[in-house]
# Entry
Amino acid sequence: MVKELTNKSGINQNNWLFPGLVGLLSRSFLFLLILGIAPIVPIPPNGLPVEANWSAFNTWDSFFYESIATQGYQYIPSNIIQGQNVAFFPFFPLLCWLLMQLGLPFNVAGTIINNSAFLGALVVLYNWLKQRYTVQTVTWIILVVAFCPFSIFGTFIYTEGLFLFVSIAALKAFDQKKYQQAAFWGAIATATRPNGVALIPTFLWVSWRQKRGIQAYLSAVFSGVGIGLYSLYCGWQFGDFFAFVRTQQAWERQAGVDWEGWKMLFSELVFGSEDMMKGLSRNPSHFILMGIVFAIASLIIYFRSRLQVNAVYYLACVLFLLAWLVAGDALINILTIFGGCYLLWKFRNKLGSLIFGYGLFSYLIIFNSGGTISAERFVYSTISVAIALGLLLSRYPRYGYATLSFFVLLLTLYCVRFAQHLWVA
# Structure
C-alpha cells in the first residue's frame, strides 16, 4: 500500500509533493478535530470549553509565547514563582511578533508559523533522507512524523514545528558538508528550544569521528550563537545570564536525573496512578491485569515459532490494545522514551554517526533535565527517533499499518483533550 502510494503518479520522484500532501492531510485532520469536534464533545472534569476559532490553538504554553510577543520578557529572581516567560526561548515569539506587525492577531500568527514550519520540516526531511534510504523507507518515516500523536504540538501554538524544521535543516546541511548553512540553522535551533544545543556536541563528535576539517568544528561552535545571544540578553536585561535556567527551579527542575520521577512513571505503568496514592492492597486490579498481559506476551514470544504468522500478529495487536486500555498514557510515554532509546541503538549503524549522535546527545539532555514532564514531547522533536521507527516499520509493514492506525486513534484523542486544556505529554 505504501509502495503503491509513493509510486502512483510519480510522487516518489517529486521533492515536495508527497511530504506536502501527507503534511496537509495530517494538519487538515487536526484542524477538523480542533475546530469541528472539540467544541461539540462533552467537556471532561478539569477541562475547558473550546471555541471554534483561532483561540482554540492557544493553550497551555502558548500563553507564555503570547506574553513574550505582546509584552516582552519578565523575570523576578525566585525559586518559588512559577510561570515566568523567560524560560521560553525567543525565536518563535520573535517570528510571531514580526507577523503581528502586519496586522495579524497572535493566535493567527502563531498557528501559521508552527504549521507552515511543520510542513517545511516534512519536505526538508524527505529530500534529505531519500538520498540515504529507499523511497519506501523514507515514506514510512514521513508518515511516522506526520501522524505521531505528539505531532499535535506541530499544530497548536508551540515550537515543535519550527524546531523540527530548523534542526532537520541543520542536520541536512552538516551531512552535506554545507557548514555555513549548518551553523545558521543550528544557531536558530538553539534560539528556539534549549534542547537545540544537542546539535553542538553532535557536530563536534561527527567532525572528530569522520576527520572533517576546521569548518565542521566551527559550524558546531557557531550553532551555539542562538542560546549565547539569549544568555547575553538575560544578563543585560535582568542581570542574570542564566535566568532561563534558574527559573526552571520554580517548576522543581534541578540539573541531573530525576530518579524519583522515572520511578513514579514506571510505578504508574505497573500499579496504576491510583495505586501510587492509595496503596496496592486497596486496588490490585491494575497490577493483576498488567501481570496477565506480561505473562501472555512472554508466552507468545516463547512459542512464536510454533504459531502461525497471522495468529502472532493478531494476538500482538489485541494484547497491546489491552495493555493500553489498562495502563493508558503511562504505557505510551514509556514506550516513546525508552522504546526510542532501544530503536536508536538497534539501528545505530543504519542511522549513521550524525543521526545517531544527535539522538544520543538529545537523550542525555532529556534525562539530565531534572524532570520527566514533557519528556515524550522532547523525544518526538528529536527527529532521530522517528527515523529509527520508520526504519523498523519499513521492515515490517504489516505492523506498520497497525501502528499508524493506532497513531491516528491517539492523535484524535490527544488533540481533542489538549484543545480542552487537558495535558497529554
In short: The two ends are 31 Å apart (CA to CA). The chain has a mean pLDDT of 90. Residues 86 and 244 are 5 Å apart (CA to CA). The chain is about 70% helix and 0% strand.
